Amino acid sequence: MWRRMIVKPVMALALGVALILPGTAWAQEFSVLWWSAFLWRAVPGDESDIGANRRVLADHLDGLPGYDVTFYHKTDPGDFAAHMRTTARRYDLIVVDSAISRPVFNAADLEAFRAYYAASGRALMLDGSLTIRNGLQDARSRFPGDNGALAGLLVNQVEALRKAGGGLLIGTDHERFQVGADQLLDALLPGVQFNGTTNPSRDGAFNGKTLLSGKERVRPVDILRHWESIPDQAEAPVGRFRDFLGNEVELYSLVDVSDKPGGTRKRSYISFTGKPGFERYDVDSQEAPEVPDYMPTRKSVPSE
After folding, report:
1. Would you say 225 and 258 are in contact if contact means Cβ atoms under 8 Å apart?
2. Ramachandran region of residue 216, left (φ > 0), alpha (ψ -120 to 50) or beta?
3. Angle formed by the axes of helices 107-119 and 179-188, to 10°?
4. Which of 3, 117, 124, 145 is deepest in the core (most CB within 10 A)?
């Protein structure tokens, strides 16, 4: 079920923000607002519609049982606050998808995000790779990825936030395009930022099963091949911080990888306020962990 507004002109790739209000009835459709705010293109000179590029991810989520996604593509400061002030809908989850080299949110937008965060379960997931998840370089850079790995990863992220009781997902790109993500992150966790540009080696691991089998089975190597096809993600912050309300927030790494050629400090690509568990899966592993028995989903092993 779609409610869309596309605003042009715009240009292409990512920040992802997810917020969930408390008290949501999970048995009902999960109402998602996908807020796209892109201002650069995946391939220089490519004139493809940026809104359409980002809508591919939202379309996938909307097509799954239990999700109702509303999509907007907007890039002007004040747009988000205006929407939240006038909408009659109550969203269970907000995804903000924006790679941008200039400020995209104004004071009113940031205050709207703070108000939403304060009313939510306050779980946080920070993703330095969400925004490259439909590149145009080659087949492995495009959504849904090898064996549907990028689609499965997205679903598992949303499910982790839902199980955590609600909160926020912020995803971004390498350092030149982190401005919007860092604006939002600083508004919620003062002084906290994404960092730099990563270049993934095969020296790393997924920590726990959150990203690999929360609802869909995903092989680590299929995600890695996507990252290798666009080798410039952001490092997500990990550690103990305080939010703007004064509450302590601890972010754990869900996957950390050393830059090429390996053997150096591991850098987190995705961090989360939920503890990841003790399992470790090499980033180039071809094994997909089992989905818990109580989760009704696909359990077949992905193909080579």
Report:
1. no
2. beta
3. 50
4. 124
How many C-beta neighbours within 10 Å does residue 301 have?
Answer: 12
Please state the φ and ψ torsions of residue 14, each to the nearest 5 degrees.
-160, 150
242 pairs with which residues across the strands? 248
Could you tell me the pTM of the whole model? 0.86
Residue 252 has what pLDDT?
A: 97
Q: Write out the two tokens for 14.
A: 């990512």
Residue ranges with strand state E in 208-259: 239-242, 248-259
Give me the amino acid identity at 41: R
Pairing of β 280-282 and β 266-272: unpaired
Closest CA to 184 of 263, 105, 253, 131: 105
- Is the alpha carbon torsion for 20, 14, 211, 197 positive or negative? negative
The three-state secondary structure class of 132 is helix
Q: Tokens representing 26?
A: 């999970």
With cut-offs at 50, 70 and 90, classify the pLDDT of residue 304: low
**Contact partners, residue 247, CB within 8 Å, separation at least 6:** 122
Element (H, E) at 125: strand 123-127
Q: How confident is the model over 48-77, as a mean pLDDT? A: 88
Nearest to 180 by CA among 234, 248, 244, 243: 234
> Could you give the CA distance from residue 159 to residue 156 in angstroms, rounded to a whole number?
5
Contact yes or no for 179/105 (Cβ under 8 A)? no
